[in-house]
Amino acid sequence: MLREVESQPRDRIIDTALRLFYEQGYLATGINQIIAESQVAKATFYSHFPSKENLCIAYLQARHVIWMKWLEDSVERHKSIEDRILGVFGFLKEWMVKCNFRGCAFLNIASEIPSFNSKIRAEVVKHKDDLKLYLKQMISQLKDSDKRYKNIDVNKDVDMVYVLVEGAIVASQNYGQVWPIQAAEDVVRRLLNI
Description:
Elements: H1 2-24, H2 31-38, H3 42-48, H4 52-75, H5 81-98, H6 105-112, H7 119-145, H8 154-175, H9 179-192
């Protein structure tokens, strides 16, 4: 019980960061705003997060769990492996419209943190590696599912599909439209002969 009570301020801080960092950006969001909107004392904030960087890492870790669950829940509704792979793009279209084309929280943070050697950028890379691994698992299943997919080069093709997914997200955010995601889906259909 005590542990649950102690975690509530931390959870409120992370929930507030999930909203503000995504809506306003990391650099534009100040610690004082997060403290005020999460309704915690300054000392409480700093006892959980010694720095804004520590909060950003916790934010990215929480966002990773949330976003990957959204993706997996959407994709896994489809029965065939072909439909699950293409379902990634259906998910992207739905997500981009729902977030009003705000785009990828991880890419948004990466654009604000130029240093490749920062702990924040390391969290961004972890998220992208997990996305790529998820795609790789599906492409491997596709290759094993039918003789017509025997020529798939899993490592090479996952790199291409991953770049198409990332490019679709960025272009969709840039244009405020879903056509880039549809274009990427069309290329994946051809690439994998789906």
